[in-house]
Amino acid sequence: MLEALIIGGGISGLTVAYLSGFLERQGSCELWEASHRLGGTIGTDRAEGYSVDWGPNGFLDREPLTLRLAGELGLKELLEPANSKSEERFIVKHGRLHPVPFSPAKMLTTGLLRPIEKARVFCEPLIPGRRDDGDESVFDFAARRIGRAAAETFVDPMVSGIHGGLARELSLPSCFPIMREMELRYGCLVRALIARQREKRRSRNAGNAIAKKSGGPAGPGGHLTSFKSGFDLIIRRLEDRLQPIIKKNRPVVRMSRTEQGWEITDQTGSKARAKKVVIACPTYAAAEFLKDFDPELSEAFGSIPYAPIIVLATGHRREDIGHPLDGFGFLIPRTQGMRTLGSIWTSSIFTERAPEGFVQFRSMLGGAGDPAVLELSDEQLCTTLRNELDPLIGIKNDPSFMRIYRWERGIPQYKIGHRERRSRIEQLVSRHPGLYISGNAYYGVGLNDCVKMAYRIAEQVGKP
Ligand SMILES: Cc1cc2nc3c(=O)[nH]c(=O)nc-3n(C[C@H](O)[C@H](O)[C@H](O)COP(=O)(O)OP(=O)(O)OC[C@H]3O[C@@H](n4cnc5c(N)ncnc54)[C@H](O)[C@@H]3O)c2cc1C
């Protein structure tokens, strides 16, 4: 009988396995991963001088637990803050790139909004904060605070960029809890941002080394950071450490209860018994293998939708691109009628992502608003991208390098009512002693969120 069995070898399952202390008690724990490789949506291809991330390519350095994990894995020296020259971000409107106006002065002069729409943004501090705890879509929140036009221009593409979702469908308190807290605490976002700037200055003065060093593009309260040579470094390091307990090519197909714990079955019919089980795979997978044992829990897991997303990484000769690429890349609001959600200038952000004299872009298509993108062939995807990007950044020739990553159910969607769906899962899980959940479907989709949840769950699971 194993002490614990962890289902899923993405960052969530691996982190739980690493932190719960089972390594020291070798043989008492196993991690079952369905595929032949670990990492889930995290992966990096290295070919022809390119280093290409399949899914995530960075995290914000604001989560101390991620930095702690990186430190414990000996990765601190291998953290790579985004290049400070990539600070500028762009938004597409009427067929051209406009810098995102991060300051009030830039907001006054931006071509992204009409004067009346700008005036509405500046009214934000006058809009009373919502005090009740009801759910609200990200779009409604933004439209209420800064006006519809600004919500469509700035918030809608940001939501597709981060969540692959639709701002009108996703829940603000579940997707961007910080925004909701800002409104609750300060009454308006402007006062909250001023307070955060002050806090940031104080923390810099107090000597936050990474914040000082990076100076890279600021996200909401952090600097984008990756690992030198590619994002999968963290997975490779975890795999090295966890070698004795990892079982690849072992998809769980059934789970049932025994007198002392759990019985887990894989696709070959081979079984294992464990006192504790951590479900760290996508909820749609858990819904499948739990449907005989607990149909109610299976249904609750199945209630979390996922959005498809395609990452198209392309490599180009530098001289084939007309744009100076002096920034992070751009996002495209849905109102612009294009299929590309955005394009990141990877080689402007991180080093060693493209060979000398070449550049790498990672463009995203699909999302909850365009599931049909999955039906496009590689060739059609490439043509769509080329047709949409060419007028924006001037692409003279076809890319000399390309990789396509299709994530059919890529990112869980925290739609309105997510908190209730999550509570229901938690309540049903709590009926089964020795059962735990961890993963990106509950408290945040980013690497930081997954690591944070894994720390909490590892503490519970690791207790003898
Ligand atoms: C295109 C894309 C871009 C992203 N960009 C960023 C970014 O820049 N920054 C950021 O912070 N986050 C980003 N994310 C989100 C982040 O990558 C994920 O939320 C995170 O990696 C999820 O980790 P996880 O371990 O919870 O799940 P997963 O990575 O989905 O891992 C789950 C694992 O469970 C396995 N599994 C499935 N079924 C079974 C079964 N029956 N039995 C056993 N194992 C099973 C799967 O094979 C998989 O390995 C991005 C995601 C995508 C798709």
Mean pLDDT: 93
- Strand tally is 20
How many discrete structural domains?
A: 3
Shape: globular
> Which molecules are bound in this entry?
flavin-adenine dinucleotide
Reported for the largest beta sheet, the result is: 7 strands, mixed
What gyration radius follows from the Cα positions, in whole Å? 23 Å
CATH superfamily of the largest domain: FAD/NAD(P)-binding domain
Structural class per helix/strand content? alpha+beta
Task: Detail the topology: elements first, then pairings.
Layout: E1 2-7, H1 11-19, E2 29-32, E3 44-47, E4 50-53, E5 59-60, H2 64-72, E6 79-81, E7 89-93, E8 96-99, H3 104-109, H4 115-122, H5 138-146, H6 148-163, H7 172-175, H8 177-186, H9 189-205, H10 209-214, E9 218-219, E10 222-227, H11 233-242, E11 246-247, E12 252-257, E13 262-266, E14 271-279, H12 283-289, H13 295-302, E15 306-317, E16 329-331, E17 340-344, H14 346-349, E18 358-366, H15 378-393, E19 401-412, H16 418-429, E20 435-437, H17 447-462
Parallel strand pairs: 1-2, 1-14, 2-11, 7-16, 14-20
Antiparallel strand pairs: 3-4, 5-10, 6-10, 7-8, 9-10, 12-13, 13-14, 15-18, 15-19, 16-17, 17-18
Helix pairs in contact: 1-11, 1-17, 5-6, 8-9, 12-13, 13-16
Flavin-adenine dinucleotide binds at residues 7-13, 32-35, 40-42, 55-59, 251-252, 280-282, 285, 289, 309, 311, 407, 410-411, 439-440, 445-447, 450.
